[in-house]
Write a structure and sequence with these properties.
By secondary structure, this protein is mainly alpha-helical. It folds into 2 domains: 106-185 and 193-353, no CATH class; 372-507, Four Helix Bundle (Hemerythrin (Met), subunit A) (Up-down Bundle). Helices cover 59% and strands 6% of the residues. It has helices at 3-25, 33-57, 62-73, 78-89, 105-128, 161-174, 207-211, 213-234, 256-262, 277-283, 285-305, 310-328, 337-340, 346-360, 362-367, 376-405, 431-434, 438-452, 463-487, 489-497; strands at residues 132-135, 156-159, 176-182, 196-202, 269-270, 275-276, 417-419, 425-427. Strand 7 (417-419) and strand 8 form a beta hairpin. Helix 5 (105-128) crosses helix 8 and helix 12 (310-328) runs parallel beside helix 16. It binds NADPH dihydro-nicotinamide-adenine-dinucleotide phosphate. NADPH dihydro-nicotinamide-adenine-dinucleotide phosphate is lined by residues 335-337, 393, 397, 400, 424, 426-427, 432, 439-440, 443, 475, 479, 482-483, 486.
């Protein structure tokens, strides 16, 4: 080797080292960095309040926009305008009798009490119902983990969400038990001077979920802030055994707002590491809460109209199936990006607890007073669209799951795959050979069918389809980027074999 080639080789290895160092020191921001995440933190609660309010009104209420617009172009006090807006959006939080708008603190505490009781009830079920103990995905050594101790580390999860779902429904349909006390003097059963306790069942007051829809969403959002702040602070505190917490790579930039949004700690846990906050919140209070909201809206419609419309029945059935499916396949969540990669911060806390139940239930809320009276043919078309979406979504996700569990299993042994340097295999035929994110396509088609059930007079019920499209495109780009980091050149090879992202032959 000549001296010049040696110097060239040295130079290029130095450059590679420098590039590596830059890569490790340069933090890649997502979601518009600190500024973008700050705006998102402020904007998301407003979106939830605006749409929960609009769904009840039967469409976008431009009065609110006009009020804010008039205020910004006139000299009137913006604080009084804000109070007027709040009074319209959250009417139950204001005393109706007074001329001067007065905040009704008791109603706020009542709604906050319901919110926290619901959360604690789900924690109680998670703790005390029988469960399967399932190992999560290993944190792979080549994924630039934050601590050496993480390598090949696998967490154990308590899987009993499906049972919790059915137990919750039992409480809703048959009532929740409570004790009543009968003084002995009025009881013919007891001659002693003691009281008699009787167990009775009380029907869950579901209509409150409709009456206080926006107010409860407000309290849930307050709870999301409290929880996210606590999680952020606790990520700095050492684990009781003295070790440092495992941090999420994407939520450890050093910028407080950004890390608060993205989630600093990867898998925050309590109760001697047996209670996983992220896995619990991903599937239980929000998803099961969404089903309860839908049931409540159907029962309110029944009370008001004397019947439950076909659109309402189908929206309930489709979304029930979607939630049931997620809980039935609970352990499948352990390999998703949310669990393996993202930290647990405001983004997921808000998404799981506030965004999912309150924006995914907009269709059922809208339908309470706005039955679009769809024709039988239209209803059949929508049912077909829903089952088409569900089939693609479920079969694609199950095929990947089955293959990852046992590639020699009968149902997947015929599929072709790419052997990667990382050690895992990428499917190149079957559903995953048609398009790289075909499961997202199925999910979106299903969501579209829920919106179509609401007719075509308002855009509010279509919020889900519009937002979900943006989310899935963005999420597919994030996953593509992460897979490129995980698989390197193998990912490029996979993309050459499977060139389409969502629809085979088109996109
Ligand atoms: P995926 O289920 O698509 O999982 C992506 C991961 O799968 C990749 O990182 C890679 O991880 C692995 N993978 C990718 N391609 C292949 C292949 N060809 N063969 C084998 N493994 C492959 O994504 P998500 O976790 O984002 O979503 C799961 C489901 O949840 C989706 O159906 C989505 O629609 C749904 N979802 C619903 C939301 C809602 O609000 N309703 C929100 C978000 C998601 P690795 O190789 O490391 O295993």
């Amino acid at each position: 080797m000549t001296t010049s080639t040696k110097t060239k080789t040295n130079k290029s290895t130095n450059q590679q080292q420098q590039q590596k160092e830059i890569k490790t020191t340069h933090f890649e921001y997502e979601f518009g960095g600190p500024f973008g995440t700050f705006l998102t933190i402020l904007l998301l609660p407003m979106v939830v309040l605006f749409f929960t309010y609009s769904a009840k009104q039967g469409g976008m209420n431009m009065d609110l926009i006009r009020l804010l617009w008039k205020d910004s172009s006139s000299n009137s006090s913006s604080s009084s305008t804000l109070v007027q807006v709040f009074q319209q959006v959250l009417p139950n939080f204001y005393k109706p009798s007074s001329n001067v708008l007065e905040w009704d603190i008791m109603t706020f505490f009542k709604c906050m009490g319901w919110t926290l009781s619901w959360f604690l009830f789900q924690v109680f079920l998670e703790r005390f119902l029988p469960c399967d103990l399932v190992l999560g995905a290993p944190i792979h050594p080549n994924e630039k983990t934050h601590h050496q101790q993480q390598q090949q580390h696998r967490l154990t999860y308590r899987i009993n969400g499906h049972l919790a779902f059915w137990v919750t429904l039992l409480f809703v349909f048959f009532g929740y038990p409570y004790w009543i006390t009968i003084p002995s003097s009025s009881s013919s059963y007891s001659s002693k001077n003691t009281s008699l306790f009787l167990l009775q069942f009380k029907q869950a007051p579901l209509q409150y979920l409709y009456d206080y829809y926006s107010e409860i969403s407000f309290c849930v959002m307050v709870w999301c802030f409290i929880l996210s702040i606590s999680l952020y602070i606790s990520s700095f505190i050492r684990h009781p055994n003295g070790t440092r917490k495992i941090l999420a790579q994407g939520g450890n930039s050093g910028n407080g707002i950004y890390d608060f949004f993205m989630g600093r700690e990867l898998n925050p846990r309590s109760l001697q590491d047996t209670f996983d906050w992220k896995e619990f919140c991903e599937l239980r209070p929000g998803l099961i809460g969404w089903v309860l909201l839908n049931i409540s809206f159907a029962s309110v419609q029944h009370t008001r109209l004397g019947y439950v419309s076909w659109s309402m029945i189908l929206v309930n059935v489709f979304q029930f199936l979607y939630v049931w499916d997620a809980l039935y396949q609970e352990s499948a969540i352990l390999t998703t990006m949310d669990i393996t990669t993202d930290g647990f911060g405001y983004m997921l806390v808000f998404g799981d607890l506030a965004w999912v139940p309150f924006t995914y239930s907009l269709q059922a809320c809208y339908l309470v007073d706005h039955d679009p009276n769809l024709s039988t043919i239209m209803l059949l078309v929508i049912v077909t669209i829903n089952f088409l979406g569900y089939t693609i979504f479920r079969r694609a996700n199950s095929q990947k799951d089955a293959f990852r569990k046992n590639p020699h299993a009968k149902e997947v042994s015929h599929l072709t795959f790419l052997e990667t340097k990382r050690g895992t295999r990428l499917l190149t035929s079957g559903w995953w050979g048609r398009a790289r994110k075909i499961n997202y396509t199925g999910d979106w088609i299903m969501g579209l069918s829920w919106c179509l059930l609401c007719g075509y007079t308002s855009v509010v019920p279509y919020f889900y389809a519009i937002y979900f499209l943006v989310l899935l495109i963005h999420r597919s780009e994030r996953d593509d980027h992460l897979c490129k980091i995980k698989y390197g050149d193998d990912w490029d090879k996979y993309k050459e074999i499977v060139p389409y992202r969502f629809i085979p032959g088109i996109i």
